[in-house]
Amino acid sequence: MPEFLTQEQVEKFYSDGYLVIPGFLASDETGALLARSKKYLDAFSVEDHPMTKFTTGDHDHVGDDYFLNSGDKIRYFLEEDAVDKDGKLNRDKTRAVNKIGHGLHELDPLFRKVTLENDKVKAIVHDLKYHHDPVALQSMVIMKQPEIGGEVGEHNDSTFLYTNPPSAVGFWIALEKCTPHNGALSFLPGSHRTASIIKRFVRLPQGGTGFEALPVNADSTTPPQGEYVLETCEPGDLVLIHGSVLHKSERNTSLNTRFAYTFHMIESPPYAEYDSKNWLQPTEATPFPHVLDKPNVISVA
Ligand SMILES: O=C(O)CCC(=O)C(=O)O
């Protein structure tokens, strides 16, 4: 018997590759996360920032220590269009940050509570039966600032959070209303079943990051088909995202922010292998935290 999801929801997740769960967080919980995110923006020290820009585009070089060593810290990544050619912000700092990450789930008590100390999250893991013993490996608040909030191009998360075999699942929670104008997520339903993971995001031997091609079985890959579905959300809605489903979000052209909190989990050994090429590396002091108190029992039919 499912603990939190209905059987229909579990089936929809596996059929579409994502699932919207309205009202996952109560409005006071959502409000508290939003307020905490804004506090981080107020605390942002522009002078100490290396002006790192984050983009998931293939050609942009994002490899610097600030980014690569952010797994167990709370760091700030800027909107590309908030920085002028001299590296100065062209607007107030609270309107310049694209996202903060990647260790909120470990370091901040409020985000930790929603992520690692949340019985509903554990129940979803049990219900999906996707992971035996998942670990949470990163978390972010994505702000998508008014008028300049950068688009996130078509991608799947297992490219960026690669394990062998692929095992990433994203939990994405709207902290504000997400509309067609402020960059709501959209998905290509079913693409997780047809689009193989063909590349992975790695630390390059010469420094920085880049993409490495993966061997692909041509028979098992068919070009993605169908139409993207835009999923508007209310504050507190959760979207579960299968690591192989293609998704994206458009530029925020509106006058409103679009705050969302997201964290990802992956399977741990011996069920999946995480290796040293991955851009995000655990440290000895901060290994990836286990999500469940006891591993999930997954019976093989
Ligand atoms: O929040 C967004 O706009 C993009 C999020 C996303 O693509 C992800 O979490 O994988």
Quote the beta fraction. 15-25%
Instruction: Estimate the global geometry from the Cα principal axes.
Output: globular
Write down the domain tally.
Answer: 1
**Helical proportion?**
10-25%
Number of strands: 13
Major β-sheet strand ordering: 1-11-6-13-4-3-2
State the CATH topology: Jelly Rolls
Query: What is the N-to-C succession of helices and strands?
Result: HEHHEEHHHEEHEEHEEEEEE
Full CATH superfamily name: q2cbj1_9rhob like domain
User: What CATH first level would be assigned?
Assistant: Mainly Beta
What ligand molecules are bound, each kind once? 2-oxoglutaric acid
At CATH's second level, what is the architecture? Sandwich
- What is the end-to-end distance? 16 Å
> What is the mean predicted local confidence, pLDDT?
92
- The low-confidence parts are 57-63
Please outline the major beta sheet: 7 strands, antiparallel
Instruction: Specify Rg, calculated over alpha carbons.
Output: 18 Å
Count of helices? 8
Class from helix and strand fractions: alpha+beta
